[in-house]
Fold this sequence. Notes:
By secondary structure, the chain is mainly β. The protein has 1 helix and 14 strands; from the N terminus they run E-E-E-E-E-E-E-E-E-E-E-E-H-E-E.
Amino acid sequence: VDIVDIIPPGTLKPKKSLNMKVRVLGASVKRVWTNSKGQVTKWEWVPTEALLRYNSGSYTRIFYNTHDKVNPNTVVRNQTVAKNSTINFGGRFNDNGSWSTMYTSTSTNHQHNVVALKNGDTPPTTTPLYQQPTIESFILPYLDAQGNIKLGPRDVIYLMELTHTNRNDGGFDLQDLCLLVTFTE
């Protein structure tokens, strides 16, 4: 909060010119097959896309791959961002050549699908379907003993739900795409 404002629902606005690095912590959309009893008989990771929009430009791809190819140490975007610029993120997945709905940090009718968290915030508690990793597995290194977000004052974590819009659905788990954004001077 000392160098970046978060404008609801999730737009970042730097207070000065900064360097921004983005990492993908998780991209865990799955395609599943179930039997007549609803039990999963087969599954596979589905390619997930992370997008970035800088100022009024179009959304551009910064990541496209499956969860098993995620390396949280890899910087997928490194750029200088100007004072008072706007930065937004989005995500979607590709299921057999068909794109899902894209949810973004500016989506007001589905703003609950993209959550921006900073130091001290409490992450949503959910139970993912189909044995997917929990949110905590992506962000465990970024949680304190009480389960709150423990980041530097210049970091933001984005959690995205890309497959459901109803928070009461068991599939709404806010762990389909997880990004870590770090700012430095």
